[in-house]
């Protein structure tokens, strides 16, 4: 695991954007395409805007295939949709071919949407190339990542796949890649900034293992690499750096 800690949010975003483009260019040079699972929530929008504005001509975007690590169970036009956020920040400005974008079909019931998304992913990958070149992740202040929330059944999935998750406190469903699927990725990158994340960062990276309380501890690539990109505010409570 590599921890990259920067002075401020802008430096974190610049470093992760450069990492994204490097990993993508390497994949494209090796096999002609690059697959990425995007994160949602509040943190990555600025990353996507930066990629669209500063890296338009530094990557062959027509060779990139976009998936979503998780999605809110809302229409694709809803303000909370991860797809809508990525569309506005990244896909539209870069004129990404819709055939290269794989949103979760949230018009289905959550369980069906999860099963269908798992099929979409399985159909995309050849048998000899099982998983994503890059999975982007965030970290919630309750230590969730993707939509692997504390004390939810998905934390006990043992086979790679996609599951629906019910959040009783919000009375909503989400759809999420499970940890075994995420952990098959060749590269995993966490984007975390702001003092509000400091406690969660400490729990996930330095506390004893407790995957029910701190689900992001489940993220551990099988053969790939994992890097954290964070600012000093988010890293403030780490003791071993
Ligand atoms: O990986 C992810 O993490 C977030 C938590 O991030 P935040 O920036 O909203 O605090 C999660 O909710 C999001 O959907 C996911 O992709």
Automatic annotation (TrEMBL):
Instruction: State whether keyword Membrane applies.
Output: no
For the keyword Amino-acid biosynthesis, the answer is no
According to UniProt, the reaction catalysed is: 6-phospho-D-glucono-1,5-lactone + H2O = 6-phospho-D-gluconate + H(+)
**Alphabetized InterPro entries for the sequence:** 6-phosphogluconolactonase_DevB (IPR005900), 6PGL (IPR039104), Glc/Gal-6P_isomerase (IPR006148), NagB/RpiA_transferase-like (IPR037171)
Q: What does this protein do?
A: Hydrolysis of 6-phosphogluconolactone to 6-phosphogluconate.
From what superkingdom does this record's organism come?
Bacteria
Q: Which UniProt keywords apply?
A: Hydrolase
Enzyme kind, highest EC tier: hydrolase
Molecular function GO terms recorded: 6-phosphogluconolactonase activity
Q: What residue intervals traverse the membrane?
A: none
Q: Name one Pfam family in it.
A: Glucosamine_iso
Write out the similarity annotation.
Belongs to the glucosamine/galactosamine-6-phosphate isomerase family. 6-phosphogluconolactonase subfamily.
Q: What is its EC number?
A: 3.1.1.31
The Gene Ontology biological process annotation of the record reads: carbohydrate metabolic process; pentose-phosphate shunt
Q: Spell out the protein name for this chain.
A: 6-phosphogluconolactonase
Stretches of the chain forming a coiled coil according to its record: none
Q: In which pathway does it act?
A: Carbohydrate degradation; pentose phosphate pathway; D-ribulose 5-phosphate from D-glucose 6-phosphate (oxidative stage): step 2/3
Q: What residue stretches are annotated with the Glucosamine/galactosamine-6-phosphate isomerase domain? A: 8-228
């Amino acid at each position: 695991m590599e921890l990259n800690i920067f002075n401020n949010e802008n430096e974190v975003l610049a470093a992760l954007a450069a990492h994204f483009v490097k990993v993508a260019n390497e994949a494209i040079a090796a096999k002609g395409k690059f697959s990425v699972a995007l994160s949602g929530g509040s943190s990555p929008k600025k990353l996507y805007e930066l990629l669209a504005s500063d890296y338009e001509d530094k990557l062959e975007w027509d060779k990139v295939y976009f998936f979503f690590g998780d999605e809110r169970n809302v229409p694709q036009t809803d303000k909370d949709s991860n797809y809508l956020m990525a569309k506005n920040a990244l896909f539209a400005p870069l004129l990404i071919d819709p055939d290269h974008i794989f949103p979760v079909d949230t018009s289905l019931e959550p369980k069906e949407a999860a099963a269908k998304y798992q099929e979409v992913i399985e159909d995309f990958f050849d048998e000899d190339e099982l998983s994503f070149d890059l999975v982007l992740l965030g970290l919630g202040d309750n230590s969730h990542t993707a939509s692997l929330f504390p004390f939810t059944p998905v934390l006990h999935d043992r086979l790679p796949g996609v599951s629906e998750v019910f959040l009783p406190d919000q009375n909503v469903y989400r759809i999420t890649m499970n940890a075994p699927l995420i952990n098959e990725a060749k590269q995993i990158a966490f984007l975390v900034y702001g003092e509000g994340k400091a406690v969660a960062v400490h729990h996930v990276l330095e506390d004893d293992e407790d995957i029910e309380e701190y689900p992001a501890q489940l993220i551990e690539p099988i053969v790939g690499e994992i890097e954290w990109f964070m600012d000093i505010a988010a890293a403030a409570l780490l003791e071993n750096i």
